[in-house]
C-alpha cells in the first residue's frame, strides 16, 4: 500500500474550542486542569479523525496552546532572561503560565514583563512568536511536550509521528537580541538538545520524526546551506535508528534542491502545489534510498483536489521511485485551512453548488487517502465512484455559470495603461485639491473606524435574526453616524469620517456586496494565539452589481460642509484576506476586484465625495518568499491600486492607508501607487518608519500615525507634539497630515475622543508656531 502522510492538523477545534478555553483560562474562569483537559480532548479527536481517515503517518506535537515556534523555544530552553523570574520548575502545569507570559506578556503581582515579538509565518496569515537569542546562549531540554504528546497518543493506541520545528528553521526564524554574533553560531549548542529529544522519542517507541524546515523554501546563503548539511549529519548520527523526515513547504526548493535532497534523512516532503512542476527537476536527482512525500493536496487553500491531475503527478513519481518511496500528503500542515466543511449548512452564504467544489482539513485527509488508494490500484469498492464524483465536481466547477462572467473577463483584458494612471501628476493635482478642499496646514483626520461598541454589533446581530427591521437598523446606524460627524466637527477634525459602523469587517462587508464571493459559518483559521479569522471565498469573476458605500457616505456628507472621507478596502487587501480561486492566475482576480473598486470610487465622486481612502493594509503581505518573484508581484499590486484609484478628476483626493508595514525595500513601489495621501503606522517606532520616506524624498502627502490605537492609553498633547516635531524634521511641513496609527474600532468612545482631542490640540499648536 502507498503510504499517506499528514504534516499537521488544525488545533483550534472545529468549533474554536481552543480559543474559548484559552480565553476562559486567561480570564480566570476555568482552571489550569480544565484547560489542559480541553487540549487533550482536541488532540484525541484529531488523532482519531486522522486514523479513521486512513492516514498512515499521523502527526503528534503539532498541537499547541498558542504557537508551535514558542513550543520549540520552550522545548530547547530558549527562554529570554526577562521571564526567568517566572520559571518555577518543570512539568506541564508549571510551564503553562510561563508559556502564556512569553506569548502575551505578564502584568501581575507588581511584575510587568513584555511579550515576545510576533511576526508573520512566511506568507501566511498565521503569526509566530519570534525566538530571541543572545551571544553564547546555552540550550537545554526544558519542555517535554513533544514526548508527552507522543506518549499520550500511544496510550490511545495510536502510533504517531512527532513533529518538531527543525533546528535550522528555528534559528533562522529567530532574532539576535544583541550584537557581535550570528544566530547560526548557536547551532552547535542547540543540536545536542535536538539529539536528546530524538533519543527520548526513540525510547518511547517512535519510528519516524518529522523536522519542519520551511526555510529551505527561502533564499539561503552559502553559510545557511552548509549549516543544513552539518546539522543533519549530526542529527542523523544522534537519531539512533529513528527515521527522520525533513518537511519543506510554501514554495518549491529552487536552488536549495541539492541541499535538501542530499540531507542524510529517510524522507523529504515537498510542496507540489506551490512548487508545481518542480517534481520533474527533482526526480532524476533523488538519492536511491530517499522517500519523497508528495504534497499534492493544497494545505493553503480550500479547493477540492483534482484527482486526475494529482494522479498524473503521483504516477510519474511512482515510475521513477517505486511504491515504497512515495508518500501522499497535503502540501503543508492543514493549520492554514478551516476544519470541517460538513459544518457549513447555510445555503444562503455558501450555496451547495459552490460547497461541492471545496475541501477543508477533514475533507483533505479523505482526499489524501483516496489518492493513495487510487495510485496504488488497491482501492476499496467505492473508490471508483469517488473518482467519478471528483471528476464531476471538477467539470461542474470548470463550466459553472456561477463563476464565469464574460463581460468581467473582457474588461480585464481591455485594461490600458491610461486606466491605471491619473491624468495629471501629483504636483498638478495638489493645487487643485487645495482649492477644492480648503484644508489648513497639518490637516487632521482619522483612519476610518470609530468604536464598534457591543451595542453597534448587537444591532447587526438583531438585524440578522430578524429582530430589527431594515429600516430600524438604518435609523440606528444613521444616528451613530450623525453623532460621530457632529463630534468630529466640534472637536475640529478637518476631514471627518462616517465611522464604519455598518461594517462587520473591512473585507467581508464589501465581499458580501460583490459577485464572486461566498462566506462560511465556521471557516475559522488560526491567526495567532486565540485569534481566528474567517476568510471569505473568492470563487468567481468579481463584479459590482450596485453601489456599495455610496449610501452611507452621501448621508454622512449631507450632515456637514467639511469633506467627509469615503472609505473603501483596496484590491490587494480584498484578495489577500480571502481564499482565492485557483482556476485562473491570482492577478486576474486581483484586477477584477480593482475594476469593481474603481467603479465604486467613481460613484463616490459622482455623489459629491471629495476625498476617498482606499485601504491597503495587506499590500506587503502578498510578497512572494523568493526575491526573484517579488518585483512582478509588486508591479501588479501597484497597478491594481492605480486601476482602482485613477478614474477620478484631479480635484478628488485619493488616500491610502497601510499599517504594520515595513517600507524599506518597497518604498519605490509605494511611491508609484501615487496616492495623494498615505497614512501609515509610525507611533510605535517613534516616527523611525518615516525615515524611509524622508530618504526617498517621497513626493506626495503623508500622515504618519501620531499615536498607537492598539493601547487604551491616552497620549498627552506634548507627546503627540513631540512626534509631530520629529516628523516635521524629516518631511516638509506642507506634506504632513495628522492622524492616528489605524482605525479606532477596538477602542472605547472615552479613549477615542480623549486621544483625538489631544491630537487636534497638538495640530493647532503646530500650526500656530509655523
Ligand atoms: N479603515 C479601516 C479602519 O479604520 C482600516 C483598518 C486597517 O487598516 N486594518 O478600521
Ligand atoms: Zn491600519
Automatic annotation (TrEMBL):
Its EC number(s): 2.1.1.14
Entry binding sites for Zn(2+): 657, 659, 681, 742
Any Pfam family: Meth_synt_2
UniProt entry keywords in alphabetical sequence: Amino-acid biosynthesis, Metal-binding, Methionine biosynthesis, Methyltransferase, Repeat, Transferase, Zinc
Leading EC class: transferase
Residues that coordinate or bind 5-methyltetrahydropteroyltri-L-glutamate: 19, 120, 125, 531-532, 577, 621
Chain ranges of the Cobalamin-independent methionine synthase MetE C-terminal/archaeal domain: 442-764
Binding positions for L-homocysteine per the UniProt entry: 447-449, 500, 615
Cofactor: how and how many bound: Binds 2 Zn(2+) ions per subunit.
Domain Cobalamin-independent methionine synthase MetE N-terminal, first and last residues per copy: 4-317
HAMAP family, A to Z: Meth_synth
PANTHER family for this protein: 5-METHYLTETRAHYDROPTEROYLTRIGLUTAMATE--HOMOCYSTEINE METHYLTRANSFERASE
Name this protein carries in UniProt: 5-methyltetrahydropteroyltriglutamate--homocysteine methyltransferase
Species: Parapedobacter koreensis
Amino acid at each position: 500500500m502507498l503510504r499517506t502522510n499528514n504534516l499537521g492538523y488544525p488545533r483550534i477545534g472545529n468549533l474554536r474550542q481552543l480559543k474559548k478555553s484559552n480565553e476562559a483560562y486567561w480570564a480566570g474562569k476555568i482552571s489550569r486542569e480544565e484547560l489542559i483537559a480541553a487540549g487533550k480532548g482536541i488532540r484525541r479527536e484529531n488523532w482519531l479523525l486522522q486514523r479513521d481517515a486512513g492516514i498512515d503517518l499521523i502527526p503528534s506535537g503539532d498541537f499547541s496552546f498558542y504557537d508551535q515556534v514558542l513550543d520549540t523555544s520552550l522545548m530547547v530552553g530558549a527562554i529570554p532572561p526577562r521571564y526567568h523570574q517566572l520559571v518555577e520548575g518543570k512539568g506541564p502545569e508549571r510551564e503553562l503560565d510561563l508559556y502564556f507570559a512569553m506569548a502575551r506578556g505578564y502584568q501581575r503581582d507588581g511584575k510587568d514583563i513584555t511579550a515576545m515579538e510576533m511576526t508573520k509565518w512566511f506568507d501566511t496569515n498565521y503569526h509566530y512568536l519570534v525566538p530571541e537569542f543572545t551571544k553564547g546562549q546555552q540550550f537545554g531540554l526544558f519542555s517535554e511536550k513533544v514526548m508527552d504528546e507522543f506518549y499520550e497518543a500511544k496510550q490511545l493506541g495510536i502510533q504517531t509521528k512527532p513533529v518538531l520545528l527543525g533546528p535550522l528553521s528555528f534559528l533562522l526564524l529567530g532574532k539576535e537580541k544583541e550584537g557581535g554574533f550570528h544566530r547560526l553560531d548557536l547551532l552547535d549548542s542547540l543540536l545536542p538538545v535536538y539529539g536528546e529529544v530524538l533519543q527520548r522519542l526513540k525510547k518511547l517507541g517512535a519510528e519516524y520524526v518529522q523536522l519542519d524546515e520551511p526555510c529551505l523554501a527561502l533564499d539561503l546563503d552559502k553559510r545557511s546551506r552548509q549549516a543544513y548539511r552539518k546539522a543533519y549529519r549530526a542529527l542523523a548520527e544522534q537519531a539512533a535508528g529513528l527515521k527522520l523526515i525533513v518537511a519543506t513547504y510554501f514554495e518549491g526548493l529552487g536552488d536549495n534542491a541539492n541541499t535538501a535532497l542530499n540531507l542524510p534523512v529517510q524522507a523529504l516532503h515537498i510542496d507540489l502545489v506551490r512548487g508545481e512542476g518542480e517534481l520533474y527537476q527533482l526526480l532524476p536527482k533523488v538519492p536511491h534510498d530517499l522517500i519523497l512525500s508528495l504534497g499534492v493536496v493544497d494545505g493553503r487553500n480550500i479547493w477540492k483536489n483534482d484527482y486526475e491531475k494529482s494522479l498524473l503527478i503521483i504516477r510519474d513519481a511512482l515510475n521513477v521511485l517505486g511504491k515504497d518511496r512515495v508518500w501522499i500528503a497535503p502540501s503543508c500542515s492543514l493549520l492554514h485551512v478551516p476544519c470541517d466543511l460538513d459544518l457549513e449548512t447555510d445555503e444562503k452564504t455558501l450555496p451547495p453548488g459552490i460547497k461541492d467544489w471545496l475541501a477543508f482539513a477533514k475533507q483533505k485527509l479523505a482526499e489524501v487517502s483516496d489518492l493513495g488508494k487510487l495510485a496504488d490500484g488497491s482501492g476499496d469498492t467505492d473508490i471508483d465512484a469517488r473518482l467519478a464524483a471528483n471528476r464531476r465536481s471538477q467539470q461542474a466547477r470548470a463550466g459553472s455559470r456561477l463563476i464565469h462572467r464574460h463581460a468581467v473577463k473582457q474588461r480585464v483584458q481591455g485594461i490600458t495603461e491610461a486606466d491605471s494612471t491619473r491624468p495629471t501628476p501629483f504636483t498638478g493635482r495638489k493645487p487643485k485639491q487645495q482649492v477644492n478642499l480648503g484644508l489648513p496646514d497639518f490637516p487632521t483626520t482619522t483612519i476610518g473606524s470609530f468604536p464598534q461598541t457591543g451595542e453597534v454589533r448587537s444591532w447587526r446581530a438583531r438585524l440578522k435574526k430578524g429582530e430589527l427591521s431594515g429600516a430600524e437598523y438604518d435609523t440606528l446606524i444613521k444616528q451613530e453616524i450623525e453623532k460621530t460627524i457632529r463630534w468630529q466637527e466640534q472637536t475640529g477634525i478637518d476631514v471627518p469620517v462616517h465611522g464604519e459602523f455598518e461594517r462587520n469587517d473591512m473585507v467581508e462587508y464589501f465581499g458580501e456586496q460583490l459577485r464572486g464571493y461566498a462566506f462560511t459559518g465556521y471557516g475559522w483559521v488560526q491567526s495567532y494565539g486565540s485569534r481566528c479569522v474567517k476568510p471569505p471565498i473568492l470563487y468567481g469573476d468579481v463584479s459590482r452589481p450596485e453601489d456599495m458605500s455610496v449610501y452611507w457616505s452621501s448621508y454622512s456628507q449631507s450632515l456637514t460642509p467639511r469633506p467627509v472621507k469615503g472609505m473603501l478596502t483596496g484590491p490587494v487587501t480584498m484578495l489577500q484576506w480571502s481564499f482565492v480561486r485557483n482556476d485562473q492566475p491570482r492577478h486576474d482576480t486581483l484586477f477584477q476586484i480593482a475594476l469593481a473598486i474603481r467603479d465604486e470610487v467613481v460613484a463616490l465622486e459622482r455623489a459629491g465625495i471629495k476625498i476617498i481612502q482606499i485601504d491597503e493594509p495587506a499590500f506587503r503581505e502578498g510578497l512572494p518568499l523568493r526575491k526573484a518573484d517579488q518585483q512582478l508581484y509588486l508591479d501588479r499590486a501597484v497597478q491594481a491600486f492605480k486601476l482602482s484609484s485613477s478614474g477620478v478628476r484631479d480635484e478628488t483626493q485619493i488616500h491610502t492607508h497601510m499599517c504594520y508595514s515595513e517600507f524599506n525595500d518597497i518604498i519605490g513601489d509605494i511611491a508609484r501607487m501615487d496616492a495623494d495621501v498615505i497614512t501609515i503606522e509610525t507611533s510605535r517606532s517613534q516616527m523611525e518608519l518615516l525615515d524611509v520616506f524622508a530618504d526617498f524624498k517621497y513626493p506626495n502627502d503623508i500622515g504618519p500615525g501620531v499615536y498607537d490605537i492598539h493601547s487604551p492609553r491616552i497620549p498627552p498633547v506634548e507627546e503627540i507634539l513631540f512626534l509631530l516635531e520629529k516628523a516635521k524634521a524629516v518631511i516638509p511641513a506642507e506634506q504632513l497630515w495628522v492622524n492616528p496609527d489605524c482605525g479606532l474600532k477596538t477602542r472605547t468612545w472615552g479613549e477615542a475622543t480623549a486621544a483625538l482631542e489631544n491630537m487636534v490640540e497638538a495640530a493647532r499648536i503646530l500650526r500656530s508656531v509655523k
